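Table S2 (text version). Query chain:
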Amino acid sequence: MNYLSKKSKSNDEISKFLENIKSLIKEGNVDFNIRPWKLKVNKTLKYMTEKNISTKDISEALLELEVGDFCYVEDDGNSFFGGEFWFFTRDYCLVDKVESMYIKLKLFDYEDKKVLVMSFHPQQPANDKDYLVPQRYK
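Corresponding structure-token output:
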């Protein structure tokens, strides 16, 4: 598997990204990667089903993201789309308990500018390669 390098961003860059996505979310310009996958579990879809939460619930939660929740960015390896994936983590109580969420977002500007929510689900255990550490703790 080809792992892309993790990159940091300045607080100003993160703040601008968050302002942009929050504006797009409020306008309803957001898509969710919640289609079932063939060979592995779509963790976001599984979480939404288990907790009975909607894309509206997730959109509202994303409006709470702050600069300190930022973890890193990675380039999108798909040369057709390009751009960057932005990774965040934040504790939320959406249903019955507080959970540290794994959040992967992308600004998508193909025909219309949109926020693409690639992942929104509880984090894996701290020893997992995909465990996110927010900038405020680095």
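Notes on Table S2: The two ends are 27 Å apart (CA to CA). The first strand starts at residue 30 and ends at 32.
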